[in-house]
Specification:
Length: 737
């Protein structure tokens, strides 16, 4: 909360003194329709609960006062608010001209009301044409405006109206970090922007446990079960009315074919709504046994209906915003909400031009349960807004300040892209080879490229870019959509910045290297970078034995010893990005020297380098080769020779391997006593040779409470590349950064 971090208690005291200790802030809340009231009501309740600070005046206008739209002003009265003024401002006709005339009528009537009320501040919500009339009137009459939900992006004329209100408003309450950044980019003063979250979430996040079956039965029938019905809410798109009516017709056809009980809410009062209602009646929706068509559902009951629905479909902002709080699947049709931030529960069908495409989306989404999303709020918006209101200094001039920060784009999901193979470019930087692969969402390596890893930084970076460009070009040919680039590399990595801090001795000239910037700039793709051990753990979490496991550890047994730790489904990096350096757990105070400079590390016993060292010693003493083995004169002694000798009965080689397995097992015991995972995954070329030894050490040395841990060998053929790919696939499809 940037605003309140900068706001001291002394500042609030000074504001109270300037405004006069006995002066109450007179707040006018103007509500135009059922949707904006659901956002304004929590604020109104908060203002009403603090009469020592505020006076509340409520003005009702717009579709609240129209019978065809449910006379929704009654729910304001039922909430025990005194309505100071009712303004009939809607000119019927439901076309573009009627919308313009409605704005004009509101502009004619509002000045008299505002002159009588003389509010200190007017609260205006959202992006409706009625709200534009309110903001215009207040701005021209020098009344301060607090705009709720500015800075957001959608796909219709609402965008233009919302941003126009932003330019008229003096204070801004936004719901997401991106919206805040958009407001800053629109030159609004950062000190007058509050990132509070959506006020409706204050009610949403405490609503789901209430009695809901009676509400479901009341609106959909006695025989309906939870997660077995659909809520449909679709509005006209005023910039393309003809297409939006056709899309609504296709939606109804798809819903009829899908054959599930469906609650259809009437559209709003925008131009085109009358034609949409005609489509409903032409198809007999109001009399169809599977459909219930209603003009209005009280917000408290609507919450319960969408929270327990099998799916919500349409183009209402409610679908991409509020419904995410419950993890209910949503199908967002058309362009009306294009640009909105969404949780993973939302599937976009932007070109809803066929019944089959909408039907396919219903088949994909219906009945799923997604993680609950808090993109738009955490349930504490109203206290922040009230504190913000109390801090307003009425003696300050209304003139705005200006600044121009950058804005980041959002990534979203689209039904057309699902028909392609969502993929990642995975890069693995090893001590010997440099590999690049196209990896699909299912973990299939579609195409792989391998080159020797150059010795210098410049040559290495040039080769990475060349191979990535080649792979990205090939991705088009194999119908793969590249979402980003994931890089797995040895050494200590800062994944937040995409920088290799310190490299292993196996990769030269590879310390303090920024990988993200040059690769992202060259490929115009997001880039993620992490340590190879962490990538192996991520690969197991997404594709391997770790899938669905809350706490597990991956140990890589290869040239070196590395690993990654997954705790509560998340990767642990540590305060200095040095977590999971499992190869450097010390298991002997006077053991052999490790490459890190210490003694007795697991890596000094059990790594491929350590085994090669011991194999050379035996070979130099002519104790390595046994019957059945042979070596060419120029052949380099390796760990593989030691393993082969042990299998053929070489007792000294076997003793070395048993010592290595014991050292690794002792390290695993230390991990069990520290992290208490439910699963240990051994990965790498030596894993199968160590697994039994590790299990034996656990049985002998571990506490009884951790002996039940499951120790398995990885079944992934290429964990480094798969882990690099999962960096991309997890983040881009989750859409939370």
């Amino acid at each position: 909360e940037v605003y309140f971090k900068n706001l001291s208690k002394q500042k609030q005291k000074e504001v109270m003194e300037k405004n006069g200790n006995n002066h109450k802030l007179r707040v006018c809340v103007a509500t135009c329709n059922r949707a904006d009231y659901s956002k304004l009501a929590p604020i109104m309740f908060g203002i009403k609960a603090e009469p020592q600070f505020f006076e509340l005046d409520v003005v009702v206008l717009g579709s609240h006062l129209i019978d065809d739209y449910g006379n929704t002003y009654r729910m304001i009265e039922q909430d025990d608010f005194d309505i100071h003024t009712r303004l009939h401002t809607i000119v019927r006709g439901e076309d573009e001209a009627a919308m313009v005339e409605s704005v004009g009528l509101a502009l004619v009537k509002l000045p008299d009301v505002l002159n009588r009320l003389k509010p200190d501040i007017m609260i205006v919500h959202g992006d409706r044409f009625d709200a534009l009339a309110l903001a215009t009137s207040a701005a021209l009459m020098n009344i301060r405006i607090l705009h709720i939900e500015g800075g957001e992006v959608s796909g219709t004329i609402d965008d233009s109206i919302r941003h126009a209100i932003t330019k008229l408003a003096h204070y801004h309450v936004c719901c997401t970090r991106s919206a805040e950044q958009h407001l800053i980019a629109m030159c609004e003063d950062h000190d007058r922007i509050l990132l509070a979250g959506c006020p409706s979430y204050d009610k949403l996040l405490s609503a789901k446990n209430k009695d809901y079956m009676s509400i479901i039965r009341m609106w959909l029938g006695e025989d309906v079960k939870t997660r077995d019905y659909i809520v449909a809410l679709q509005h006209p798109v005023t910039t393309d009315i003809k297409h939006s009516i056709k899309m609504f017709e296709l939606t109804l056809d798809a819903l009829i074919s899908f054959n599930k009980r469906t609650l259809v809410l009437f559209p709003n009062v925008d131009a085109g709504s009358k034609e949409m209602v005609r489509v409903m009646r032409k198809k007999g929706i109001e009399h169809h046994p599977n459909f219930r068509a209603v003009k209005h559902v009280p917000f408290d009951q609507f919450i319960q209906l969408v929270a327990h629905a099998g799916c919500m479909i349409g183009n209402s902002s409610c679908g991409v915003r509020e419904v995410g709080a419950f993890g209910t699947p949503v199908i967002n049709l058309g362009t009306r909400q294009t640009g909105r931030e969404t949780g993973e529960n939302v599937l976009h069908v932007r070109d809803a031009d066929t019944q089959d495409k909408i039907l396919h989306a219903l088949q994909l989404q219906f009945g799923k349960q997604y993680p609950c999303s808090k993109i738009y709020g955490d349930g504490n918006a109203v206290p922040r807004i009230l504190k913000f209101l109390k801090s307003i200094d009425l003696k300050e001039p209304l003139q705005k300040k200006f600044c121009f920060p950058p804005v980041k784009d959002n990534i979203s999901q689209d039904i057309d892209h699902i028909l392609e193979t969502q993929s990642a470019l995975a890069v693995d930087l090893g001590g010997t080879n440099l590999r690049v692969a196209i990896v699909s969402m299912k973990g299939e390596i579609v195409k792989k490229y391998t080159q020797l890893n150059p010795k210098t930084y410049e040559d290495r970076l040039e080769l990475i870019l060349k191979m990535c460009v080649e792979a990205a070009s090939e991705a088009v040919n194999v119908n793969c959509r590249i979402l980003g680039v994931g890089i797995s590399t040895g050494g200590r990595v800062n994944p937040r910045e995409g920088i290799v801090l310190h490299s292993t001795k196996l990769i030269q000239e590879w310390s303090s290297v920024d990988l993200r910037t040059p690769i992202s700039d060259a490929l115009h793709l997001p880039v993620w970078v992490d340590n190879d051990g962490n990538c192996a753990a991520l690969a197991e979490r997404k594709f391997g034995h770790g899938k669905g496991i809350e706490n597990f550890v991956t140990l890589i047994t290869g040239t070196g010893i590395g690993g990654g730790i997954i705790h509560q489904h998340e990767l642990i990096h540590g305060s200095s990005f040095c977590a999971a350096e499992l190869g450097h757990i010390v298991v002997s105070l006077d053991g052999p020297e490790c490459l890190c400079g210490s003694q007795g590390c697991i890596e000094a016993y059990a790594s491929g380098i350590a085994l090669q060292r011991e194999a050379k010693k035996l070979h130099d003493e002519d104790l390595l080769l046994v019957e059945g083995m042979s070596m060419k004169k120029e052949e380099v002694v390796s760990a593989a020779h030691l393993i082969q000798a042990a299998k053929l009965g070489n007792t000294k080689a076997d003793s070395i391997l048993r010592t290595a397995g014991t050292a690794l097992g002792l390290g695993v015991v230390n991990i069990l006593h520290t992290m208490n995972p439910s699963l240990v995954i051994l990965s790498g070329v030596l894993a199968s040779h160590y697994v039994n030894a590790v299990k034996d050490v656990i049985n002998r040395q571990a506490l009884s409470s951790v002996k039940t841990v499951n120790v398995v060998v990885s079944n992934l053929a290429d964990p480094a590349l798969l882990g690099a790919a999962s960096l991309v696939l997890d983040y881009t499809t989750r859409r939370i950064y």
